[in-house]
C-alpha cells in the first residue's frame, strides 16, 4: 500500500512540473548546443542544418564542391524547389543540388536549372472555327470544332476576351517564376479547333496544358470554380488519368485559396475534345460563372484578376514540385 502511495505522489509531482515549467523551445536547445565559432553540419530532430561561425545558413550556398539550399529556419531542402525563380532539384538523401542530370524525365542544365514548359490555351475566339472534328483519337463521334463561348450577364464582356486577358497575365507571371510559356493564341483574330489547340501542347511536350475558360448556367445564382479532366477509363487517353486528375486538383485548390470563391469540384468526363486529344497533363479551369451577376462583375476587376492569375500559377507550381 505504501509503494502505491509513493508511486502516486511521484506521478503527481511529475504532472505538476509539466504544467508549471515552460514549454521547451528546441530552437534555443539547438542554439545552446552550437558554439559561436562552430562551422559545419548538425542534425536536430531528423533535420539537417549547416552552421557558419555558429549561425545557421539560409538560402542557396556552395559548401565544398556542392550547392545546398536552406529554408528561412535553416532546414536543408530536398526534392524540387523554386529558388530565386528557378526550379532546382536537391538530392533527397544528401541535399546536394543536381546539375547536368535528368530527374523524373526533367532535364537539369549545368547551372542546376530545370525550365518547365506550360502551354496556356485561352478558350474560344472572336473568329470561331467552323465544322466538326472527332471527339477523340479513333472516335466516330463528332463535335463542333469550337463555339463562341458565353458572355457576362452583367458586364456584357465576351468569354473569349476574359480568357485571353487572364491567359496573357498568367503568361507574364509564369515567366517571372522561371517557366517557359507557349500560348495557343495571343489575339482573338484566329480560329482554332480544340484539336488544333491540343496539338500545340503535344508538340511542345508540355509539362502542363492549361485550358482557360469561364462558365455559364441558366441558373444565375450558381457561382464558383471547377476544373475538368478525363476519366480513369477514358477510351482515348486513360494513361494520363492520374496526372490529369492531380493537375486538376492542384489548380482548383490553389485557385479557390487565392480568390476565396466557392469551390465546386473536379469534373471527370470524356466529353471534352481538347482534353481527349492531349498527350500531356491537362485540365480545364472554369474560373467562375459569367451568368452570375456578382461573379461576372468580380471577374472583371483588376484586383480580382490578379488573384485569379496567382491562384492558377500556384496550382501549376504545386502540381509540378510537390
UniProtKB/TrEMBL annotation:
GO MF, one example: N-acetylmuramoyl-L-alanine amidase activity
Signal sequence segment: 1-31
Any single GO CC term annotated in Swiss-Prot or TrEMBL for this entry: outer membrane-bounded periplasmic space
Key words of the record: Hydrolase, Repeat, Signal
Source superkingdom: Bacteria
Pfam families, per database record: Amidase_3, Choline_bind_3
EC class (word): hydrolase
EC number: 3.5.1.28
Gene Ontology BP terms: peptidoglycan catabolic process
Domain MurNAc-LAA: 198-317
Gene3D superfamilies found in the cross-reference section: Cholin Binding, Zn-dependent exopeptidases
Keyword field contains Signal: yes
PANTHER family assigned: N-ACETYLMURAMOYL-L-ALANINE AMIDASE (PTHR30404), N-ACETYLMURAMOYL-L-ALANINE AMIDASE AMIC (PTHR30404:SF0)
UniProt name for this protein: N-acetylmuramoyl-L-alanine amidase LytC
Annotated source species: Blautia wexlerae
Origin organism lineage: Bacteria, Bacillati, Bacillota, Clostridia, Lachnospirales
Name of the encoding gene: lytC_1
Amino acid at each position: 500500500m505504501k509503494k502505491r502511495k509513493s508511486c502516486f505522489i511521484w506521478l503527481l509531482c511529475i504532472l505538476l512540473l509539466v504544467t508549471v515549467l515552460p514549454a521547451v523551445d528546441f530552437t534555443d536547445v539547438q542554439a545552446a548546443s552550437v558554439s559561436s565559432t562552430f562551422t559545419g553540419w548538425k542534425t536536430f530532430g531528423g533535420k539537417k542544418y549547416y552552421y557558419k561561425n555558429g549561425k545557421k545558413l539560409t538560402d542557396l550556398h556552395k559548401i565544398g564542391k556542392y550547392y545546398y539550399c536552406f529554408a528561412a529556419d535553416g532546414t536543408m531542402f530536398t526534392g524540387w524547389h523554386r529558388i530565386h525563380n528557378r526550379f532546382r532539384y536537391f538530392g533527397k538523401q544528401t541535399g546536394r543540388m543536381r546539375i547536368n542530370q535528368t530527374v523524373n524525365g526533367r532535364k537539369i542544365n549545368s547551372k542546376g536549372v530545370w525550365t518547365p514548359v506550360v502551354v496556356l490555351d485561352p478558350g474560344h475566339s472572336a473568329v470561331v472555327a467552323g465544322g466538326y472534328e472527332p471527339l477523340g483519337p479513333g472516335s466516330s463521334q463528332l463535335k463542333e470544332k469550337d463555339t463562341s463561348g458565353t458572355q457576362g450577364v452583367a458586364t456584357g464582356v465576351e468569354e473569349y476576351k476574359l480568357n485571353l486577358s487572364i491567359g496573357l497575365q498568367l503568361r507574364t507571371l509564369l515567366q517571372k517564376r522561371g517557366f517557359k510559356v507557349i500560348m495557343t493564341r495571343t489575339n482573338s483574330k484566329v480560329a482554332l479547333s480544340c484539336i488544333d489547340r491540343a496539338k500545340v501542347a503535344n508538340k511542345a511536350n508540355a509539362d502542363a496544358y492549361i485550358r482557360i475558360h469561364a462558365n455559364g448556367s441558366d441558373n444565375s445564382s450558381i457561382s464558383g470554380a471547377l476544373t475538368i479532366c478525363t476519366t480513369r477509363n477514358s477510351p482515348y487517353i486513360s494513361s494520363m488519368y492520374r496526372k490529369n486528375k492531380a493537375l486538376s486538383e492542384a489548380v482548383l485548390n490553389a485557385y479557390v485559396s487565392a480568390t476565396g470563391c466557392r469551390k465546386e469540384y473536379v469534373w471527370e468526363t470524356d466529353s471534352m475534345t481538347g482534353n481527349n486529344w492531349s498527350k500531356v497533363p491537362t485540365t480545364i479551369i472554369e474560373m467562375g460563372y459569367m451568368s452570375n451577376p456578382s461573379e461576372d462583375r468580380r471577374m472583371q476587376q483588376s484586383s480580382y484578376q490578379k488573384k485569379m492569375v496567382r491562384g492558377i500559377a500556384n496550382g501549376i507550381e504545386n502540381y509540378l514540385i510537390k
